[in-house]
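Sample intake sheet
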Amino acid sequence: MEQASDEHQGDGPVYTVDELAARAGVTVRTVRFYGTRGLLPPPVIGARRVGWYGAGHLSRLALIEELRRQGMTLAAIERYLEQLPADLSARDLAVHRALVAAWAPESAEEITRRELERRAGRALADRDLDRLAALGVLDGGPDVFRLDGSLLRLGVELLDVPIGHETILASRTVLLAHARAAAQELARLFQEQVWNPYRESGEDPDHLTAMKSLSAHMQPMVIQALVTAFQRSLSEELRTAFRTPSP
C-alpha cells in the first residue's frame, strides 16, 4: 500500500479505492458509483492524485450495503442518509448499522420461476406473477425473481380471491404510506429517547449494550402492537361501513 501523506497518517487507517472495496466486499465500480450519487463523501486527495478513504467511508459503505440488502432503492437510501447527523463518527455509523440490521425483515432471496412454482405448490401464470408482485411478494423476472418468502404463502392464497389488480395496488399504497408514517414517528422517538442519550453518554459501552438490547426487544413488541392495532381498527371501520342503516 502506498503511504499516505503525513497530514493523513494520524487519522486512523486509510485505504485506496481498491483496498476500501476489498474490505467492504464490493467492487471498485460500486464505490465510485456511490460517490457520484453522493452516498459516500469524496476521498482525501494525496500525493500523485491518489484518493484516500478512511474508517468513516468504510462504515458508511457497510451501512449502505445493509440498507440495500433490506431492499431499499438508491433513492430511498439517499433520503435515509440525508436524515443522519452530519457529524456521525465511524463508530456511530457502525452502531447505526447494527441497529438497522436488528430490525431487518427476512432477507429477500433470488429464485427461479420453476423453484417459485414448486414452493407455491402450483403453476403460476403471468397474471399470477403480476398479482404477487403487486402484493410485494416478489419482483424481477421473467426467469429469476427476488422473493420475500415470509409473504409467499399468503400471496398464493390470495391469488384466487376475486379482487381486482388495481384494488390490490391501491390497498398496498395505502398500507405502505401509513406504515412509513408510523416508522418515521417510531424512528424519531428512538432517536430522541435512545440514540441521543447514548451519544451524550460519551458512547459508554454499558449504554451501548443496553441500547442494542432495547432495540432487539422493541422489534417484536412494535410489530405485534402494529398488527393488533390495525386488526382492531379495520374491524371497527368495516362494521361502520357495512352497518345496515336504521329504518
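Comment: Strands lie at 44-45, 51-52, 109-112, 138-140, 144-147. The first helix runs from residue 6 to 9.
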